[in-house]
Predict the 3D structure of the following.
Amino acid sequence: MGILNAQHLIKVFGHRLSLTKALNDFSLEVQAGEFVGIMGPSGAGKSTLLNVISTIDRPTSGMVTLLGQDLRKLKGKQLAQFRREKLGFIFQDFNLVDALTVKENIALPLSLNHQPPAQIKQRVQAVSQILGLQELLTYYPLELSVGQRQRIAAARALVTEPAILFADEPTGSLDSRAATDFLQHLQRINQGQISDTAHISTPTTIIMVTHDAFTASFCKRILFIKDGSLFAELIRSSDRQTFFDQIIDMQATIGG
Ligand code: ADP
Ligand code: MG
């Protein structure tokens, strides 16, 4: 059994007179160490799927097992703790605290968890090194570029050493150069690699929503969703450029 197993997910929004079926019998399984992309047209259900498999939202029916845990059985404080300790999240708009320094932003999940200061310092240093942020720790987010801010958000998501990183349109606010840099960092984190020579102990499983073919071409496997159902799946078998071309073709097939 994989790190994530979701079966027959249905998610309905709205009320009697205007119902939207955002997920329509969607199933997926993800193995530890994968870098999975979720693609599809606007309104296809990508964010809904990510939210439902990552504890942010609950399905109307169907079941999700994440890290061996049946999410239906997790509520309240237990759910919050599970999320804090095991999962990492990155969104398009960073959600950094502008009044805190970079270092304080990255440390936030640990300080909220009342971790010992020495351990916080060590973890912040390690993750800053992975994301190339060592020189920026005393700055405030608004003094930095959007690309740097997204790497700070990634550092904050990774500081707890989550087993899975969930990202929804993480390159949506970045220009192509910042996006490339950010995606190369994600790729290294997925591979458990800090630099060409240095390695971190555990590779991180990544599940990323994007509508952008270039961003998706960094994944190893892509699920295409349309009208809340699985439309197609692509597995990367060769170089990134070839995969990119395959993604573009699939986007044309799936249509707007
Ligand atoms: P995507 O991320 O692929 O653009 P979403 O998952 O955000 O799509 O949305 C899928 C469908 O569900 C859309 O029709 C959207 O309008 C609807 N939807 C999403 N969230 C809500 C909500 N909170 N309330 C009502 N409808 C929603
Ligand atoms: Mg979305």
In short: The helical segments are 46-53, 76-86, 102-112, 117-130, 146-158, 176-191, 213-216, 240-254. The chain has a mean pLDDT of 93. The longest strand covers residues 18-30.
